[in-house]
Design brief:
single chain; alpha+beta; nine-stranded antiparallel β-sheet; 9 strands
Length: about 140
């Protein structure tokens, strides 16, 4: 009996992690893995589109790797860190990066990133939700 309880707990935990969330079809991190480029932000019902890149700037992107590793670029900095997903599309991210001055677009991204708590994935589009349903909308690059 003592051996069955941990086994049932494990089975229940796997079932709970694979249950549906917001409006997504994600069943594992494998679909989330890959490189994503930020296309727009939605803040307080206002949509802000990705600006053209100036010389020396990088596209704002996140690269979700296997084993919870996260890499990314803001407009002028390189980011490294971790991510962890759980049931009902919750996500936690953390890390750090270089500290060069950001563009306005880069500032929007780096200020929103620590507040992300939910995600939604449909086809080649990733939405990261933060602060009262604000959104960062990404398209898959690879």
């Amino acid at each position: 009996m003592k051996k069955i309880i941990p086994l049932l707990t494990l089975v229940f935990g796997v079932f709970a992690l694979s249950s549906c969330g917001k409006t997504t079809t994600i069943s594992s991190n494998m679909e989330l893995t890959g490189k994503w480029e930020l296309q727009s932000l939605v803040q307080n019902a206002d949509t802000i589109q990705k600006p053209a890149l100036a010389k020396g700037q990088m596209p704002v992107s996140l690269n979700f790797k296997e084993k919870g590793e996260l890499e990314g670029t803001s407009s002028t900095n390189i980011l490294t860190g971790f991510y962890e997903t759980a049931q009902q599309n919750t996500i936690q991210m953390g890390g750090g990066g270089t500290e060069r001055a950001e563009t306005q677009w880069g500032n929007l991204f780096v200020n929103a990133l620590p507040n992300v708590n939910l995600y939604d994935l449909k086809m080649n589009r990733l939405i990261l939700y933060y602060e009262n349903n604000n959104q960062m909308i990404f398209s898959r690059v690879q």
